[in-house]
Amino acid sequence: MPDKPAPDASRRSEKSRRAIYAAALALVAETGYPKTTIEAIAARAGVGKQTIYRWWPSKADVLMEAFLDLGEQAAARQEGARADRQPDGIPDTGDLAADLKTVLRATVDALFDPAFEAPARALAAEGLVNDQVGRQYVAKLLQPQLELYVHRLRSAQDTGAVRPDIDPRIALELFVSPLAQRWLQRTAPVSYEYTDTLVDYALHGLAPR
Amino acid sequence: MPDKPAPDASRRSEKSRRAIYAAALALVAETGYPKTTIEAIAARAGVGKQTIYRWWPSKADVLMEAFLDLGEQAAARQEGARADRQPDGIPDTGDLAADLKTVLRATVDALFDPAFEAPARALAAEGLVNDQVGRQYVAKLLQPQLELYVHRLRSAQDTGAVRPDIDPRIALELFVSPLAQRWLQRTAPVSYEYTDTLVDYALHGLAPR
Asked: Which residues, numbered 142 to 171 in chain B, qualify as contacts with chain A under a Cβ-Cβ cut-off of 8 Å?
């Protein structure tokens, strides 16, 4: 590609990029990661496979970017739908329990969104057995989300809502990981009532006060 | 097979069953679930594939039984090694925090046992994208473990160590799911100190008391 593509070329590129993302996500959802090949993505997107190789070094890279783009689109839709949503994803109204419940309810909506669930599940499954995909999945998809919780819990420590000796990176797992496991492994149903309960148990503990 | 095999036939069967389990576990660890076929298991175990079909209706059944057998062998080894271990897997010394920490430390040992980790990870990955395998994985492998925690938390409710309004099936996830997610998705390192911390946070909560 030239360094500065003409406007028409740029529009064509954007259209190809969208078609490639859509094809990659549809294929991984339908056939799983191992059977999703650059050739199949190119055929479904109606582009030559050299077009894909020119932009991405491997199928893992195409899929991860397609998936990140999907997440950004979903976040943009949610921000449109929820006027109260903070730009960084986790509100800080001063009421920690309420804020965490709001975010976990939105996470439930996102996880079970049909456009998101099947490709997310296929990529997560591959990440369990494929180190490269697993590392990218964690670094690019999970870690940035977890950082938002670390930030919100630190702010709660500043106001005294969370004990100062708590490690926020571990603490967030008390409500994030149960939801992740129910979604990933389908160990039990998920509801808003369930995620609300996780927040209450995590903040107040299981032992009597 | 005759209803009552002669002792020699029974010994031969037991030997074949062991060889089939070992072959199935090795193959799923090396090549993943989709490429593990009855034909490949039979070839590696040195038996005819009719021998496998005579005992198990599908490869999912062979693998799940091989895996359950592996878990039972590991549990038996641990029981041999730990004289203080309770038959039901979770001790009840009256000190809930100590008992949960003991069991989670043993779980860490089991999850990272080389004989267990690769096949467990391969089966868990398939369970995320294959409903039949996922349901069997949950029902046969996870659910019986989770029931032990429900039982122990109910006993803690009887003695007042856990609040009576807590739902034990949700409560156990505050310390079980974080470990499961770190192991499955390799989101962060696992240590005894980490699982001890999970128990303390879950019992006492993140908010000041």
From this structure: 142-143, 146, 153, 160-163, 166-167, 169-171
Rounded to an integer, what distance in angstroms lies between the CA atom of residue A81 and that of residue A160? 32
Backbone angles phi, psi at A74, to 5 degrees: -65, -40
- Measure the N-to-C terminal CA separation of chain B; round to a whole number of Å: 65
Q: With bands split at pLDDT 50, 70 and 90, how would you rate the model's confidence at B5? A: low
Domain spans, chain B: 84-204
| % of chain B exceeding 90 in pLDDT | 64
When comparing pLDDT for A130 and A205, which is higher? A205
- Token pair, residue B64, equals 């799940």
A99 and chain B: CB distance < 8 Å anywhere? no
Structure tokens at A141: 């998809």
Report yes or no for ipTM above 0.90: no
**Residue A106 has which token pair?**
């939105």
B81 CA: distance to closest CA in chain A (Å): 30
| Radius of gyration over every alpha carbon of chain B, rounded to an integer in angstroms | 20
Query: What is the three-class DSSP state of A36?
Result: coil
Q: Is B191 left (phi over 0), alpha (psi -120 to 50) or beta?
A: beta
Count other C-beta atoms under 10 Å from residue A133's C-beta.
Answer: 20
pTM of the shown model:
0.88
Class of domain A84-204: mainly alpha
Per-state percent for chain A, helix, strand, coil, to nearest 5: 75, 0, 25
Interface contact flag, A128 B127, Cβ < 8 Å: no
- CA pair distance B36, B75, nearest whole angstrom: 26
The DSSP symbol for A42 reads H
Which residue from A129, A142, A207 is facing B122, i.e. has the nearest CB? A129
Tens of pLDDT, residue by residue over A59-115, are 888 999 998 898 787 777 666 655 454 445 799 999 999 999 999 999 999 899 888
User: Greatest CA separation found in chain A?
Assistant: 68
Q: What is the DSSP letter of A206?
A: S
Residue type, B8: D
